[in-house]
Amino acid sequence: MASGHISNGEFFTQLASLIEKTQKKGHGSVHLTQKRLSYETTAAPSKDDPLADLNPAAPLPILVRVSDGNTQSQDRVKNKDPVKFATVVQADELETFFARYAEVCKVGMQSLRKRDRSKRKKTKKGGAKGAEAKG
Amino acid sequence: MVNFDTLEEWQTQTSLLLQARPTTTRISTKYNIPNLEAPRYNAAKKRKRDTEGKDGDAAPAPAVPRGTFTLKTFDPVSGATLKFKTDKSADVGRMVAGLGRAGRVMAALPEKAEAPDVAMEDAATTTGMTLAEASKDTSHTAPTESKPAAPAAAKKKKKGKK
User: Which InterPro entries match (chain B) (predicted)?
Assistant: First the structure.
């Protein structure tokens, strides 16, 4: 990758500003992708051993990418500098990372439908949660 | 491609796919705010002849763009695609928690968080049950057998049950 990976802290500041920018603009998308970082690891499936990746010896880091999806302009010309950044999350930092991730998403994504508090119906969600806890 | 109605379904199917192909499967999240000026949102207005008569109906709806939040699991090797889409902000927290759970599978960490809790609960309930049963047993046996040997017999019975 040309730009390289950024640190987790830097990642969240950039993500927050990208979401805010989209929100101000009034339309647009924020794309987030996560996958296992399998570059330069021995645990990659090959022809000899197609299931080599199923039980790796050590936990693997995860790669999280963000983009605004504007890789092309409207007349199908490649965008020279699209908004694009990525970070690597080590396995032991996963929990803190996703906690912060949820926070950034909840704060930033204001165009989603808010919970309707005026006419509260009988909450189905409460029942579902109860069922989950039981089962 | 499969669109799921509930987050739980998406979660179970995603973790199954991840367990099968942990290296190639990726999970994308898209937060989208639609552009209400785009042609596809204005296509209906062009039919002037239909709407000309009734001006009241033609008044533009309050144009507040409603964002959506989409989860997509994709494995390029098998071509499997699993999707879940919502427009409720209440779902975001649960969805990111789901991403975190999927992340654990991806990182090849053992699944945890809820597993020990459930085990604990189960253990607690089962012990509670056995205690209740035991008390029931004694209450049943006590009135019928008033001999001094009765409690010992009851104890033996319980041991056999367990």
Answer: SRP9-like, SRP9_dom
Tokens of A10: 């830097």
Q: Do A59 and B68 touch (CB under 8 A)?
A: no
Q: Do B23 and A38 touch (CB under 8 A)?
A: yes
B108: left (phi over 0), alpha (psi -120 to 50) or beta: left
* Three-state DSSP class for residue A113: strand
In this prediction, residue B73 has a pLDDT band, given cuts at 50, 70 and 90, of very high
Number of A/B CB contacts below 8 angstroms equals 138
A57, B15, B25, B75, B109 from B20: Cα distances, Å: 17, 9, 9, 10, 15
- Cβ neighbours of A115 in B, within 8 Å: 88-90
What are the φ and ψ backbone dihedral angles of A70, each rounded to 5 degrees?
-90, 70
B67 touches A: beta carbon within 8 Å: yes
> Which domain, by its residues, includes A68?
1-43+58-113
B53 backbone dihedrals φ, ψ, rounded to 5°: -60, -45
Within chain A, how many helices (H) and strands (E) appear? 3, 3
Shared-domain flag, residues B27 and B70? yes
Say what the ipTM of the complex is.
Answer: 0.73
Give per-residue pLDDT as tens, A13-52. Answer: 999 999 998 888 888 889 999 988 877 655 556 666 666 6
Q: Is residue B142 part of a domain?
A: yes
Q: Is A63 left (phi over 0), alpha (psi -120 to 50) or beta?
A: beta
User: Do residues B75 and B141 share a domain?
Assistant: no
